Amino acid sequence: MVQDLTPYRFGLVSLLPDSFAAYARYGVTGRAVAEGRVTLHLENPRDYARNRHRTVDDRPYGGGPGMVLMVEPVLAAIRAAKLASPGVPVVALSPQGERLTQRRIETWAHLPGLILVSGRYEGMDERIYTLGVDEECSIGDYVLSGGELAAMVVMDAITRLLPGVLGSPGSAVADSFSAGLLDHPHYTRPELFEGLAVPPVLLGGDHRAIERWRREQALARTRERRPDLLGPG
Ligand SMILES: C[S@@+](CC[C@H](N)C(=O)[O-])C[C@H]1O[C@@H](n2cnc3c(N)ncnc32)[C@H](O)[C@@H]1O
C-alpha cells in the first residue's frame, strides 16, 4: 500500500477527453477525484493541430486502410503534459505493449504520477513512440478502437492502491494477484439461498480457522484456475 498523501497526477493525452468522465465521476475513482487524492490534466492533440480544420490524422505512407495519428500534434500534447507533470513517465496504451499486471500497477502507484497517451484510428505515427513515449502498455491480447478505455483501466487499478481511497485499507492487500494468489470466495447475507449455504466456518467467529480456510481456498482456486501464478512445480 502506498503511503504518500500528495495527490497522484494523471496527465492524459487524448482526442476524446470527455470520455474520462467514466473514471472521474463515478464510484471509488470519482470519489478519489472529488477528494483531491488524484488530479487529472487533459491535453487534446487537436488543440495543437496547425491547420484550420484542426486535423490530427492523415493517410498512411505506403497505402492501406484507415488513418494514422500525426506526430506533430500528438507530440506537442505529450510535451505540454510533461511540462504540467515533470519527471513522470509517459506510457502509451497499445496492443503491442507489455501486458499489464498488478506488479506494474504497484510500481506505477508509487510514482508521483503517470502520463497516459491514448491512440485512435489505425494507431500513432511510429516517431511518437521514439520521441515522446517511455513505455507501452497493453491491457490484453485484443484490439480496442481507442486507448481511453485502456487508460482508465490503468487509472482505476492505480487509484484503488492510493492511501485513503478504499474504505478498508486491507481490501487491496487481499485482492487477487497482490499476494501472488487469486482472492478467496466471499459471502454475505442470506446464510442460505436456493439451497446454497454459506460455509459454516465463516459463521463460527473463529478468526484463525477463517484465515486458514480463506488461505486454503485462495490456493485451491489459484491451482485450479491460474496455475501459472504458482510457478513451475
Ligand atoms: C485500433 S487500435 C490500433 C491497433 C494497431 N493498428 C495495432 O494493430 O497494433 C487504436 C488504439 O487503441 C488502443 N488500444 C487498442 N487495443 C489496445 C489494447 N489491447 N491495450 C491498450 N490499448 C489498446 C491504442 O491506443 C491504439 O493506438
Q: How would you summarize what this structure contains?
A:
The protein has helices at residues 21-24, 27-34, 71-84, 102-109, 126-132, 148-159, 170-174, 207-225; strands at 8-13, 38-43, 57-58, 68-69, 90-99, 113-117, 135-138, 192-193, 196-197.
Task: Please give a structural write-up.
The chain has 233 residues and is an alpha/beta fold. It has two domains: 8-159, SPOUT methyltransferase, trefoil knot domain (Alpha/beta knot, 3-Layer(aba) Sandwich); 179-230, Trp Operon Repressor, Chain A (Orthogonal Bundle), CATH 1.10.1270.20. Helix content is 33%, strand content 17%. The protein has eight helices and nine strands. The chain has helices at residues 21-24, 27-34, 71-84, 102-109, 126-132, 148-159, 170-174, 207-225, and strands at 8-13, 38-43, 57-58, 68-69, 90-99, 113-117, 135-138, 192-193, 196-197. The strands form three sheets. Strands 2-1-6-5-7 form a five-stranded parallel sheet. The protein has a two-stranded antiparallel sheet with strand order 3-4. The chain has a two-stranded antiparallel sheet with strand order 8-9. A hairpin with a 2-residue loop joins β8 (192-193) and β9 (196-197). It is elongated and about 70 Å long. The two termini are 30 Å apart. Bound molecules: S-adenosylmethionine. S-adenosylmethionine binds next to β5.
